[in-house]
Amino acid sequence: MPKKKTDTKKKWQKAIRKEMLKATLREAQARYGTKDPAFNYRWEHVTAVVELATRLAEETGADPDIVVAAAWLHDIRKETGPRHPIEGAKFARSFLPKTDFPPQKIEAVAKAIEDHMGLWRKKPLKNLESMVLWDADKLAKIGLTAVFHGAGDVLNRNRPMTLKRLIKNGRNNQWQQRTVASMHTEPARRAAQTRLQIYNQLWDTLEQELHGADLRLPVSEEE
Description:
By secondary structure, this protein is mainly alpha-helical. It contains eleven helices and no strands.
């Protein structure tokens, strides 16, 4: 008989995952008018950040407990807008003591959440766990991940959309270059550069297909 898969998640991980899921359902209700959207943007974003933060912690030596907890909770109070990092940190300080999360690490989680605001930075962060969360959060907004997350969000809103407009919106990404330049860790900086290149190539390729540019023979074959 096949062995059952062992659930290696710690109790605190299950607890904060549950809280984050509830928060995404509240946001979906407010954002799309339903708790059961075709694409739960916030949940997809947060789970992507958790995956990226976990890998970056392995690559950089950051504390995995702090990084994972902060990744799960960084958008827990997204409904508060620009204050969501501050409010999210408050939530972490009040909620984590109710779990089996190491109490000596709670403030570090709150600090990382407080520090994750902004699509780029004028000055780099100094705390490693804050760096990792910031990098993971922004990596999830660059590359093909950003394309499909954005498309899912657009479709949920039931607003008229054309491929021409999608391409225009996709190319309106001057901020992404500043985001890439703001990455703190070498693995994230390297990945961000590659993702941005792929992101830009996607829109170029899509536009070429729509205009039938791929029907022409390459110059070398025409001669």
